[in-house]
Amino acid sequence: MQVVPALMSGESVALSFDWIVPLDPAAPHTLQVEVDPLNELVEIMETNNTQSLVELLPDLTVGNVNVITTADTMTITATIFNQGSSPTLMPFAAALRLDDAVIGDSAASTTLTDSLAAGESVEVLFTIDDPFSTFAAVHVSYLVVDTGNTIVEADENNNDNFAAINPFLSWKNPLDPLDVNRDTHVSPVDVLILINELNARGSQLLAILPTPPFFLDANGDDFISPIDPLLIINFLNSLGGPEGEPTAARNAVFAGFAARNASIDKAPVKPVRRQTALQQLPTAETGDKHLLRRRVHTTYRLGTEAAAGDAVLLDELFPGA
After folding, report:
1. 115 and 199 together in one domain
2. How far apart are CA 42 and CA 22, in angstroms?
3. pLDDT tens digits for 223-253?
4. What is the pTM of this model?
Protein backbone atom coordinates (compact mmCIF):
# COMPACT_ATOMS: atom_id res chain seq x y z
CA MET A 1 0.00 0.00 0.00
CA GLN A 2 1.17 3.53 -0.77
CA VAL A 3 0.01 6.92 0.51
CA VAL A 4 -0.83 9.42 -2.22
CA PRO A 5 -0.33 13.12 -1.46
CA ALA A 6 -3.19 15.54 -1.87
CA LEU A 7 -4.18 16.12 -5.48
CA MET A 8 -5.65 19.32 -6.84
CA SER A 9 -8.48 19.16 -9.34
CA GLY A 10 -7.11 17.89 -12.69
CA GLU A 11 -3.80 16.67 -11.24
CA SER A 12 -2.43 13.10 -11.44
CA VAL A 13 0.37 11.03 -9.99
CA ALA A 14 2.17 7.88 -11.20
CA LEU A 15 2.75 5.03 -8.77
CA SER A 16 4.79 1.85 -9.12
CA PHE A 17 4.72 -1.45 -7.24
CA ASP A 18 7.12 -4.36 -7.16
CA TRP A 19 5.58 -7.82 -7.48
CA ILE A 20 7.20 -11.23 -7.79
CA VAL A 21 5.40 -13.06 -10.61
CA PRO A 22 4.49 -16.65 -9.67
CA LEU A 23 5.92 -18.99 -12.35
CA ASP A 24 2.66 -20.79 -12.82
CA PRO A 25 1.61 -21.12 -16.47
CA ALA A 26 -1.46 -23.14 -15.58
CA ALA A 27 -3.60 -20.17 -14.48
CA PRO A 28 -3.78 -16.43 -15.17
CA HIS A 29 -3.12 -13.87 -12.44
CA THR A 30 -5.27 -10.78 -12.07
CA LEU A 31 -3.74 -7.58 -10.75
CA GLN A 32 -6.12 -5.05 -9.24
CA VAL A 33 -5.31 -1.48 -8.19
CA GLU A 34 -7.69 0.36 -5.83
CA VAL A 35 -7.57 3.94 -4.58
CA ASP A 36 -9.16 5.14 -1.34
CA PRO A 37 -9.83 1.54 -0.24
CA LEU A 38 -11.03 2.73 3.22
CA ASN A 39 -13.45 5.32 1.76
CA GLU A 40 -11.79 8.14 3.66
CA LEU A 41 -12.58 10.68 0.93
CA VAL A 42 -16.05 11.82 -0.04
CA GLU A 43 -16.21 11.63 -3.87
CA ILE A 44 -18.74 12.48 -6.55
CA MET A 45 -18.57 8.82 -7.71
CA GLU A 46 -17.46 6.01 -5.43
CA THR A 47 -17.71 3.16 -8.00
CA ASN A 48 -14.76 3.91 -10.26
CA ASN A 49 -11.89 3.48 -7.82
CA THR A 50 -10.56 0.13 -9.10
CA GLN A 51 -8.78 -1.13 -12.23
CA SER A 52 -7.60 -4.65 -13.02
CA LEU A 53 -5.25 -6.25 -15.52
CA VAL A 54 -4.83 -9.84 -16.75
CA GLU A 55 -1.62 -9.94 -18.80
CA LEU A 56 0.73 -12.30 -17.07
CA LEU A 57 0.61 -15.21 -19.49
CA PRO A 58 2.74 -16.29 -22.43
CA ASP A 59 1.36 -15.57 -25.89
CA LEU A 60 2.71 -17.60 -28.83
CA THR A 61 2.51 -16.26 -32.38
CA VAL A 62 3.93 -17.38 -35.73
CA GLY A 63 5.87 -15.04 -38.02
CA ASN A 64 6.03 -15.23 -41.81
CA VAL A 65 6.13 -18.74 -43.25
CA ASN A 66 8.87 -19.13 -45.87
CA VAL A 67 8.94 -21.92 -48.46
CA ILE A 68 11.93 -22.91 -50.62
CA THR A 69 11.35 -25.69 -53.17
CA THR A 70 13.91 -27.66 -55.15
CA ALA A 71 13.56 -30.80 -57.25
CA ASP A 72 14.33 -33.01 -54.23
CA THR A 73 13.21 -31.13 -51.13
CA MET A 74 10.91 -28.44 -49.82
CA THR A 75 12.10 -26.42 -46.83
CA ILE A 76 9.52 -24.56 -44.74
CA THR A 77 10.64 -22.20 -41.99
CA ALA A 78 8.99 -19.74 -39.62
CA THR A 79 9.80 -17.90 -36.41
CA ILE A 80 7.72 -18.52 -33.29
CA PHE A 81 7.48 -15.56 -30.89
CA ASN A 82 6.44 -15.38 -27.24
CA GLN A 83 4.94 -11.90 -27.11
CA GLY A 84 3.36 -12.50 -23.72
CA SER A 85 4.55 -11.55 -20.24
CA SER A 86 5.76 -14.88 -18.86
CA PRO A 87 7.75 -17.88 -20.11
CA THR A 88 6.19 -20.98 -21.59
CA LEU A 89 7.99 -23.34 -19.16
CA MET A 90 6.39 -26.45 -20.69
CA PRO A 91 7.19 -28.21 -24.02
CA PHE A 92 4.80 -27.46 -26.87
CA ALA A 93 4.27 -28.79 -30.40
CA ALA A 94 4.30 -27.09 -33.79
CA ALA A 95 2.82 -28.67 -36.92
CA LEU A 96 2.44 -28.07 -40.63
CA ARG A 97 -1.21 -28.59 -41.60
CA LEU A 98 -2.61 -28.58 -45.11
CA ASP A 99 -5.49 -26.31 -46.17
CA ASP A 100 -6.99 -25.85 -42.70
CA ALA A 101 -5.30 -24.69 -39.50
CA VAL A 102 -7.54 -26.80 -37.24
CA ILE A 103 -8.53 -29.98 -39.10
CA GLY A 104 -6.03 -30.05 -41.96
CA ASP A 105 -3.88 -33.13 -42.48
CA SER A 106 -0.52 -32.85 -40.74
CA ALA A 107 2.40 -32.93 -43.17
CA ALA A 108 5.07 -32.56 -40.49
CA SER A 109 5.41 -31.74 -36.79
CA THR A 110 8.00 -31.07 -34.12
CA THR A 111 8.15 -30.52 -30.35
CA LEU A 112 9.94 -27.56 -28.78
CA THR A 113 11.25 -28.60 -25.39
CA ASP A 114 13.11 -25.45 -24.29
CA SER A 115 11.23 -22.79 -22.37
CA LEU A 116 10.57 -19.66 -24.39
CA ALA A 117 10.95 -16.57 -22.22
CA ALA A 118 8.79 -13.48 -22.63
CA GLY A 119 9.98 -11.60 -25.71
CA GLU A 120 12.07 -14.49 -27.03
CA SER A 121 11.69 -16.28 -30.35
CA VAL A 122 12.79 -19.54 -31.95
CA GLU A 123 12.90 -20.70 -35.58
CA VAL A 124 11.25 -23.96 -36.64
CA LEU A 125 12.21 -25.79 -39.80
CA PHE A 126 10.46 -28.57 -41.70
CA THR A 127 12.16 -30.43 -44.55
CA ILE A 128 9.90 -32.38 -46.91
CA ASP A 129 11.64 -34.93 -49.13
CA ASP A 130 10.23 -35.52 -52.63
CA PRO A 131 7.61 -32.73 -52.42
CA PHE A 132 6.04 -33.69 -55.76
CA SER A 133 5.05 -37.15 -54.51
CA THR A 134 4.22 -35.88 -51.01
CA PHE A 135 1.84 -33.09 -52.00
CA ALA A 136 0.92 -33.75 -55.69
CA ALA A 137 -0.89 -30.39 -55.77
CA VAL A 138 -0.71 -26.83 -54.53
CA HIS A 139 -1.86 -26.39 -50.92
CA VAL A 140 -2.19 -23.65 -48.35
CA SER A 141 0.12 -24.71 -45.55
CA TYR A 142 -0.61 -23.55 -42.02
CA LEU A 143 2.19 -23.57 -39.49
CA VAL A 144 0.40 -23.99 -36.18
CA VAL A 145 2.05 -23.62 -32.77
CA ASP A 146 0.92 -25.28 -29.51
CA THR A 147 -1.25 -27.76 -31.40
CA GLY A 148 -1.92 -29.69 -28.19
CA ASN A 149 -3.01 -26.58 -26.26
CA THR A 150 -0.52 -27.35 -23.50
CA ILE A 151 0.30 -23.66 -22.95
CA VAL A 152 -2.36 -21.41 -21.42
CA GLU A 153 -1.96 -18.14 -23.32
CA ALA A 154 -3.19 -14.59 -23.13
CA ASP A 155 -4.59 -15.04 -26.67
CA GLU A 156 -5.42 -18.47 -28.03
CA ASN A 157 -6.49 -17.24 -31.48
CA ASN A 158 -3.16 -16.11 -32.95
CA ASN A 159 -1.27 -19.41 -33.07
CA ASP A 160 -0.89 -19.88 -36.82
CA ASN A 161 0.30 -18.36 -40.06
CA PHE A 162 0.17 -19.65 -43.61
CA ALA A 163 1.84 -19.76 -47.01
CA ALA A 164 1.16 -21.46 -50.34
CA ILE A 165 3.27 -24.50 -51.14
CA ASN A 166 3.74 -25.45 -54.78
CA PRO A 167 5.65 -28.69 -55.51
CA PHE A 168 5.69 -27.99 -59.25
CA LEU A 169 8.86 -26.31 -60.49
CA SER A 170 7.83 -26.34 -64.14
CA TRP A 171 5.27 -27.61 -66.64
CA LYS A 172 7.40 -30.70 -67.28
CA ASN A 173 6.24 -33.88 -65.58
CA PRO A 174 9.14 -34.78 -63.26
CA LEU A 175 8.18 -38.45 -63.27
CA ASP A 176 7.70 -38.87 -67.03
CA PRO A 177 8.06 -35.85 -69.34
CA LEU A 178 5.83 -37.47 -72.00
CA ASP A 179 2.95 -38.17 -69.59
CA VAL A 180 1.00 -34.95 -70.09
CA ASN A 181 -2.16 -35.87 -68.17
CA ARG A 182 -0.45 -37.60 -65.24
CA ASP A 183 -2.23 -40.93 -65.70
CA THR A 184 1.14 -42.79 -65.59
CA HIS A 185 0.79 -43.79 -69.27
CA VAL A 186 2.10 -42.27 -72.50
CA SER A 187 -0.68 -42.46 -75.08
CA PRO A 188 -2.30 -40.50 -77.94
CA VAL A 189 -4.38 -38.75 -75.26
CA ASP A 190 -1.23 -36.85 -74.30
CA VAL A 191 -0.71 -35.78 -77.93
CA LEU A 192 -4.30 -34.62 -78.23
CA ILE A 193 -4.13 -32.51 -75.07
CA LEU A 194 -1.13 -30.65 -76.43
CA ILE A 195 -2.70 -30.16 -79.87
CA ASN A 196 -5.90 -28.79 -78.32
CA GLU A 197 -3.85 -26.38 -76.21
CA LEU A 198 -1.83 -25.24 -79.22
CA ASN A 199 -4.97 -24.70 -81.26
CA ALA A 200 -6.55 -22.70 -78.44
CA ARG A 201 -3.60 -20.49 -77.47
CA GLY A 202 -0.73 -21.16 -79.84
CA SER A 203 2.94 -21.59 -79.03
CA GLN A 204 3.78 -19.62 -75.90
CA LEU A 205 6.03 -19.23 -72.91
CA LEU A 206 4.49 -21.09 -69.98
CA ALA A 207 4.25 -19.10 -66.78
CA ILE A 208 4.64 -20.78 -63.40
CA LEU A 209 1.20 -21.16 -61.86
CA PRO A 210 -0.50 -23.32 -59.23
CA THR A 211 -1.16 -26.96 -59.94
CA PRO A 212 -0.84 -27.41 -63.71
CA PRO A 213 -3.96 -29.14 -65.04
CA PHE A 214 -1.66 -30.89 -67.51
CA PHE A 215 2.09 -31.02 -67.97
CA LEU A 216 2.36 -29.23 -71.30
CA ASP A 217 6.15 -28.96 -71.59
CA ALA A 218 7.45 -32.36 -72.74
CA ASN A 219 10.94 -31.10 -73.64
CA GLY A 220 11.39 -28.86 -70.61
CA ASP A 221 12.15 -25.59 -72.44
CA ASP A 222 9.41 -23.65 -70.59
CA PHE A 223 7.42 -23.31 -73.84
CA ILE A 224 4.54 -25.23 -75.33
CA SER A 225 5.18 -25.69 -79.06
CA PRO A 226 4.66 -28.36 -81.75
CA ILE A 227 7.90 -30.04 -80.66
CA ASP A 228 6.15 -31.24 -77.49
CA PRO A 229 3.51 -33.43 -79.18
CA LEU A 230 6.13 -34.49 -81.73
CA LEU A 231 8.27 -35.99 -78.97
CA ILE A 232 5.35 -38.11 -77.80
CA ILE A 233 4.43 -39.15 -81.35
CA ASN A 234 8.04 -40.22 -81.94
CA PHE A 235 7.90 -42.29 -78.79
CA LEU A 236 4.62 -43.95 -79.77
CA ASN A 237 5.99 -44.70 -83.24
CA SER A 238 9.05 -46.27 -81.66
CA LEU A 239 6.78 -48.88 -80.08
CA GLY A 240 6.23 -50.42 -83.54
CA GLY A 241 8.17 -53.42 -84.90
CA PRO A 242 10.04 -53.69 -88.25
CA GLU A 243 8.62 -51.57 -91.06
CA GLY A 244 6.22 -49.88 -88.72
CA GLU A 245 4.11 -52.89 -87.88
CA PRO A 246 2.14 -52.43 -84.63
CA THR A 247 3.32 -54.25 -81.55
CA ALA A 248 1.32 -55.57 -78.61
CA ALA A 249 2.52 -52.62 -76.55
CA ARG A 250 1.24 -50.09 -79.06
CA ASN A 251 -2.07 -51.92 -79.48
CA ALA A 252 -2.48 -51.85 -75.71
CA VAL A 253 -1.95 -48.09 -75.77
CA PHE A 254 -4.65 -47.59 -78.38
CA ALA A 255 -7.09 -50.08 -76.88
CA GLY A 256 -8.08 -47.75 -74.06
CA PHE A 257 -7.77 -44.53 -76.05
CA ALA A 258 -11.45 -44.05 -76.91
CA ALA A 259 -12.60 -44.39 -73.29
CA ARG A 260 -9.90 -42.10 -71.92
CA ASN A 261 -10.43 -39.54 -74.62
CA ALA A 262 -14.02 -38.99 -73.47
CA SER A 263 -12.62 -36.68 -70.78
CA ILE A 264 -10.66 -34.53 -73.23
CA ASP A 265 -12.24 -31.22 -74.20
CA LYS A 266 -12.23 -30.95 -77.98
CA ALA A 267 -13.77 -27.49 -78.02
CA PRO A 268 -10.54 -25.72 -79.04
CA VAL A 269 -10.66 -27.35 -82.48
CA LYS A 270 -11.45 -24.72 -85.15
CA PRO A 271 -12.63 -26.61 -88.26
CA VAL A 272 -13.72 -23.44 -90.10
CA ARG A 273 -10.43 -21.53 -90.20
CA ARG A 274 -8.35 -24.66 -89.54
CA GLN A 275 -5.67 -22.72 -87.68
CA THR A 276 -3.53 -25.60 -86.55
CA ALA A 277 -0.58 -25.60 -84.24
CA LEU A 278 1.67 -26.42 -87.17
CA GLN A 279 0.77 -23.21 -88.96
CA GLN A 280 2.58 -21.31 -86.24
CA LEU A 281 5.96 -22.84 -87.07
CA PRO A 282 8.44 -20.69 -89.02
CA THR A 283 8.65 -21.26 -92.77
CA ALA A 284 12.09 -22.79 -92.34
CA GLU A 285 10.47 -25.65 -90.43
CA THR A 286 8.03 -26.65 -93.18
CA GLY A 287 9.58 -30.09 -93.25
CA ASP A 288 8.78 -30.51 -89.57
CA LYS A 289 5.14 -29.65 -90.31
CA HIS A 290 4.89 -32.47 -92.81
CA LEU A 291 6.75 -34.81 -90.49
CA LEU A 292 4.34 -34.11 -87.65
CA ARG A 293 1.29 -34.58 -89.92
CA ARG A 294 2.68 -37.83 -91.29
CA ARG A 295 3.59 -39.23 -87.90
CA VAL A 296 0.25 -38.36 -86.37
CA HIS A 297 -1.60 -40.18 -89.13
CA THR A 298 0.85 -43.09 -89.13
CA THR A 299 0.28 -43.52 -85.42
CA TYR A 300 -3.49 -43.53 -85.78
CA ARG A 301 -3.53 -45.83 -88.83
CA LEU A 302 -1.64 -48.37 -86.75
CA GLY A 303 -4.13 -48.07 -83.92
CA THR A 304 -7.24 -50.11 -83.27
CA GLU A 305 -10.65 -49.34 -84.70
CA ALA A 306 -11.64 -47.85 -81.33
CA ALA A 307 -9.53 -44.81 -82.16
CA ALA A 308 -11.22 -44.14 -85.50
CA GLY A 309 -13.16 -41.14 -84.20
CA ASP A 310 -10.02 -39.57 -82.88
CA ALA A 311 -8.25 -40.12 -86.17
CA VAL A 312 -11.06 -38.12 -87.79
CA LEU A 313 -10.41 -35.34 -85.28
CA LEU A 314 -6.75 -35.28 -86.27
CA ASP A 315 -7.78 -35.19 -89.93
CA GLU A 316 -9.56 -31.92 -89.09
CA LEU A 317 -6.53 -30.60 -87.25
CA PHE A 318 -4.08 -31.58 -89.97
CA PRO A 319 -5.83 -31.40 -93.36
CA GLY A 320 -4.14 -32.56 -96.49
CA ALA A 321 -2.03 -35.37 -94.95
Report:
1. no
2. 36
3. 898 888 888 888 888 775 443 444 444 444 4
4. 0.53
